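S1.2 Input.
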Amino acid sequence: MCLARPSPKLFMPAFGTRLSIQRLFFRQREDIEMSSMKDKVAGVANQVAGKVKEETGKLTDNERLEAEGAAQNLKGKVQKTAGDAKDAVKSGIDKL
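S1.3 Output.
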């Protein structure tokens, strides 16, 4: 009768747990940094595109294009603010 040996990993669930948690924390921190940068870049891009649309609408007397530009500009401001908020959260976490 041959008994299979249990894997050593089954007996050491706590080994490396702290390291795994640290890796997860730093990965999430990197994700926050990247997503905040993406939000800021997308926000600035939307602001610029919105301003161009808005000015084009004013020059051509196209109220619809002007309104779309204003809305896109506002969307860009919100995205940039979200990126700034994520940076504030990240810096708050770093202080801990």
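S1.4 Remarks. The radius of gyration is 25 Å.
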